[in-house]
Write a sequence for this structure.
């Protein structure tokens, strides 16, 4: 249920206060600790309004007072900061081999990070819903035990997800038209917080925008480096899902191949690179598990570090194909950075120079290399799902304090 | 000087009234004629505020009262509409063969449309500035003679334009690093209205968004079909220029070619199609003028209509290459429509079926054909430059009534 960004031009009565609360929240995140007067100066809201908004945010435990400062002319001012201890956003990633759960506080600091093996590609969607529900309940219980309110939940899937949270097509899970959002909300028996389902690449680029080395950069492309090859697109500071929600199908980009072209994913996805560089491996059926990919990537890295010429040549060839695909993305989108995620990051020392050389040779203007490696490791999709929750809070979707957050935990314990 | 969209989340004191004026203006454009009460209901602004805003817009001659209506319960209400007679936005296109000037009123209705031959590819930038300045002065004189205020001016160039209006690279004009915005403003001796310089494809997609058959569609790609091949990208309702302002380099997309790949522009630009389909033509130097292209396109259309098999086969081959490039754009961006502009529109009966078939075959989901032909003919870039001016007004950049619009005309008449 990743919705489109609301039209900021549409003024609606009920929105004004929520918008102003969000403006104050963002101001404190970006500039805090700061005083009420600082907020008034930075936002242009008058001081009375700011005081009222701050009171509400304190009551909702989204802000806290951190004491006074003497470092200024006039009376000491009470300083405000985000209240990191009162709440958390949850992000989950479901894929063919494991489930990941992360939680972060309102300031983006990590609260927990769990990973458990799960054969997503061999079990039914219903069993996946059951497993994800159980994981979410354990996360919620832990969070509430720490006295935190759950701000919301995002779940990343490695495939096409409709705006209403239906999984249209998830090849690595063998899913087609699974109404995952509805089934999950039903299994959670009405959680007291918002639930969103989204594409892993889309969430990952949001994670980079908030937590990554290039956080705050407004034009980013994130390439997933797992069992599939997809792109998350951040354009002018916002996630762009396209008209139907299917943007970023980078794996379909044609690149040169013997006798014509091939889709980028067949020659330069992580799976394809693993096969190309270690072709004498005994296994060659179509689907490699992430565990198998990980073993191969480790082996490739070891051989490349040892200077094995065959490995280096094959890596170079694969990197050239990846570079051609990235050149296409850069020509169309002109991002500030293309971030290689997942297992691409492990191979970055051999991939990045080839990619950046090709971009440079073909005349793409750049002060610094455009292609970079992700620093968020495999947590990016789950972190991005949590980042999406924080984004929503900062855009005015404040948590509803009238619904006790522990209702869910109670429901989880109740017999059904 | 196409600037980035202002961050709508940034509340600034001085902005609030301008923003609200713009909200009212957009409301009347979308829903007018309508009453003050209708505006209050639609925008959520209170009636006193709406009355004050409407008074200012009437005083600025952006709105007008159109009489009363009896078609409702209660007192007759005074209806408001955009004042189409009081102002106009100017759009200019400079290219290798001609200059185009259009003007539209605040409601988007055409005020004038002129085209004159101009050898942009053989004269110096300075001479182009002189010619464009003379054209603008004639347009301004005409507009002011009708009692209209100039809302602003946009100038479309067929190349890379920096955000500050400098033409970085315009191959068909042989320009490199020409500070066109500064030179034009200087030659106009300080016009009393805003001046922007932009890329022709970017402006053209704005024209489609406001005036085209698919106006209002929030995700559009426009392909230029002139001497070059570029794309204008509208994503989530806004023009997206990329990090450096160079997005939409669709001509660089690799497509299959004998022995590997070729950039899309070398096989499927209008120039390339003209050469491929009429290869026995005597002329074959690198640059075809638009006049030469036009003759060839007419000949191709005549032969295709007559069912000439060679022409049809060659058109089909070119269409397949174009289709591969469009498939790449659609995979990355997922637009609602890809609009074939310029001379592509003339060849649409032969290009579109091939393109839409390939998108369909490769599994792009679509209720209606994605590739369509532009209905704006060759005026799209100039119309889009004018549309950009209207967009800016509706985003709060209201004309400054304290600067008499005829100051420019006076300056034009003054000796220098």
């Amino acid at each position: 249920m990743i919705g489109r960004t609301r039209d900021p031009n549409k003024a609606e009565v009920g929105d004004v206060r929520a918008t102003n609360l969000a403006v104050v929240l963002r101001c404190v995140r970006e500039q805090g600790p700061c005083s009420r007067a600082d907020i008034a100066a930075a936002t242009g809201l008058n001081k009375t309004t700011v005081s009222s908004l701050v009171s509400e945010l304190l009551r909702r435990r989204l802000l806290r007072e951190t004491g006074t400062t003497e470092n200024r002319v006039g009376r000491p001012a009470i300083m405000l900061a985000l209240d990191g201890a009162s709440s958390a956003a949850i992000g989950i990633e479901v894929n063919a081999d494991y489930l990941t759960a992360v939680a972060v506080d309102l300031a983006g600091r990590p609260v927990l990070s769990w990973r458990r093996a799960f054969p997503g590609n061999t079990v039914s969607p219903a069993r996946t819903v059951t497993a994800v529900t159980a994981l979410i309940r354990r996360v919620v219980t832990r969070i509430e035990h720490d006295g935190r309110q759950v701000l919301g939940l995002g779940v990343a899937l490695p495939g096409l997800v409709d705006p209403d949270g239906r999984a249209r097509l998830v090849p690595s899970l063998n899913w087609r038209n699974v109404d995952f959002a509805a089934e999950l909300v039903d299994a959670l028996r009405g959680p007291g917080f918002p639930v969103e389902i989204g594409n892993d690449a889309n969430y990952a680029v949001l994670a980079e925008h908030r937590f990554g080395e290039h956080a705050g950069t407004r034009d980013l492309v994130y390439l997933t480096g797992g069992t599939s090859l997809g792109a998350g697109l951040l354009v002018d500071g916002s996630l762009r899902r396209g008209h139907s929600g299917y943007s970023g199908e980078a794996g379909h980009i044609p690149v040169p191949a013997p006798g014509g072209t091939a889709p980028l994913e067949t020659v330069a996805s992580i799976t394809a690179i693993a096969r190309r560089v270690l072709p004498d491996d005994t296994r060659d059926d179509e689907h490699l598990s992430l565990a198998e990919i990980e073993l191969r990537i480790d082996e490739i890295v070891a051989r490349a570090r040892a200077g094995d010429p065959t490995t280096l040549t094959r890596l170079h060839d694969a990197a050239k194909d990846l570079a051609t695909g990235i050149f296409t993305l850069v020509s169309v989108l002109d991002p500030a950075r293309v971030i290689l995620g997942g297992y691409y990051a492990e191979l970055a020392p051999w991939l990045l120079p080839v990619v950046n050389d090709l971009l440079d040779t073909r005349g793409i203007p750049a002060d610094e290399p455009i292609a970079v490696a992700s620093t968020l490791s495999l947590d990016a999709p789950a972190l991005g799902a949590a980042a999406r929750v924080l984004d929503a809070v900062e855009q005015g979707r404040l948590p509803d304090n009238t619904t006790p957050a522990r209702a869910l935990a109670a429901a989880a314990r109740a017999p059904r």
